[in-house]
Specification:
By secondary structure, this protein is mainly beta. The protein contains three helices and 36 strands. The longest helix is centred in the N-terminal third of the chain and has 15 residues.
Length: 456
């Protein structure tokens, strides 16, 4: 049930759209893959660009930000800090690993609370606004996971959330429940070795969920207004052991003029029509040697008409990095793999796209700047090592990369024209969620607190 607290929002969807449009008008032009050139070639591109390149001031509506790239052109963020730089910290009820989202200076995140799956809202000063409970929690198994791994997403009018338990819901901005369902109750349990982590994504009309596991796997669309299931399409593939386990999140794109869904998992990269779930495009042969125990964890990143896909086990010294061209239709396995590397990659952290280049943070702290069309390395560097790994996906703001390590260390480095380590900052908290840069503030979600860092 919802715990009511004062809230004052009117015409939120309109204000959200206007703020995004204004930010777009003020921003630097988007990379070529997000321009009209993509329509001319029929190539796919990330519709997150419609949120406006560099529109950090418009909010952070989903896990990887306004462009779904993990980056923003906006600047003015802290590059080093002390305890005095912490503007505020808000206690969290229990360990959750989802990344917060921001809409009009309101912060939304998921967390377990007294054995329940919960959604929490905070104002810009870190004051709790409301908490809505949605049903019984299914706790995480991994030390760096929880039942609240998937991140929320917003269309400016509602907050959409899902959990390991199968709870799926749309909430109004005052915390009231618009609709609610349980996908485990409806479709059976999720058979993953570790904890469900796929976040919901939004198309024009629907909220999309992917289930990729050892069993019947699928993509499904639920009406944003009513929760009614609009379509469900099978996405089951035979793989070596654990290869069908997927923890990635789909990306909403446009493909040959239509809204579509790019999904990576079960050793297949696929594009489905967002209108009816029909398979439009597929690329396989990511594991021709049939190596076992290669699940899909890091999500792809898009740049210059390409999908850059991390695979293999970089955490065990066996990475793979694929460059896949996103044009054409049908089975493109034999035609669209432009390059493959076996010396660089990441297992858990999802890469970042910034100004047409791709930045890969490995689990152990190596950073590689990759040219997406060729796969060539522009430069490589390494963050200071420890026994701890990187689980959070990095972000880039105005050419500065922020990388949070599980032991509470946050590294800040200038990366736009080579690598320059600016600072190492330490929290007395475990850090698994991605950092959120919005309006010259860094929102950092720890196991125990939500922190706000800003310049004095």
């Amino acid at each position: 049930m919802r715990s009511p607290l004062p809230h004052n929002l009117t015409s939120p969807g309109l204000r959200f759209a206007v703020s995004l449009l204004l930010a777009a008008c003020a921003s630097t032009p988007a990379p070529a893959f997000a321009t009209g050139a993509a329509f001319a070639t029929g190539a796919a591109f990330n519709t997150g660009a419609a949120f406006a390149t560099g529109a950090a001031d418009a909010g952070w509506p989903q896990w990887r930000g306004p462009k779904n790239s993990g980056s923003t052109l906006a600047g003015g963020f802290p590059t080093q800090w002390t305890d005095a730089s912490v503007s505020w910290k808000a206690p969290l009820p229990a360990k959750g690993c989802s990344t917060p989202i921001v809409l009009e200076k309101r912060i939304y995140l998921t967390a377990p609370s007294e054995g329940k799956d919960s959604v929490l809202a905070f104002d810009w000063a870190g004051k709790p606004l409301w908490k809505t409970d949605l049903g019984a929690e299914d706790p995480g198994k991994h030390r760096n996971a929880s039942g609240s791994n998937p991140s929320p997403v917003t269309d400016g009018k509602s907050i959409f959330v899902t959990f390991k338990s199968g709870n799926l819901a749309a909430l109004n901005l005052d915390g009231s429940i618009r609709w609610q369902a349980n996908l485990v109750g409806r479709f059976g349990p999720v058979n993953l070795f570790w904890d469900f982590g796929t976040s919901p994504v939004l198309t024009e009309k629907n909220v999309i969920l992917a289930r990729m596991h050892n069993g019947a796997s699928w993509l499904a669309a639920f009406d944003k207004d009513t929760g009614e299931m609009r379509w469900k399409t099978d996405r089951t593939y035979e793989t070596p052991r654990e290869g069908d386990h997927g923890y990635t999140t789909p990306i909403v794109i446009r493909h040959e003029g239509r809204e579509a869904l790019l999904t990576w998992g079960a050793q297949q990269l696929t594009i489905h029509d967002a209108l009816d779930g029909k398979l439009l495009w597929s690329c396989g042969e990511f594991n021709p040697a049939a190596v076992a125990l290669w699940p899909a964890v890091a999500s792809p990143v898009l740049a210059d008409g390409m999908a850059v896909v991390c695979f293999g086990r970089a955490d065990r010294g066996n990475p793979r990095l694929h460059g896949i061209k996103l044009d054409g239709s049908g089975d493109v396995t034999s035609t669209n793999r432009v390059w493959l590397r076996e010396d660089v990659g990441a297992f858990v952290p999802t890469p970042v796209e910034y100004k047409g280049l791709v930045y890969i943070l490995s689990d152990r702290g190596q950073i590689d700047c990759i040219e997406p069309r060729t796969g060539k390395t522009s430069w490589t560097a390494a963050l200071p090592r420890s026994s701890a790994n990187f689980y959070a996906s990095p972000v880039i703001a105005d050419g500065v990369l922020y990388a949070a390590r599980e032991d509470g260390a946050v590294f800040v480095a200038r990366v736009e024209k080579g690598f320059e380590l600016l600072s190492e900052n330490k929290f007395d908290d475990r850090l698994i969620a991605s950092i959120v840069p919005v309006e010259k503030r860094l929102l950092i979600r720890g196991q125990s607190f939500l922190y706000c860092i800003e310049l004095p």
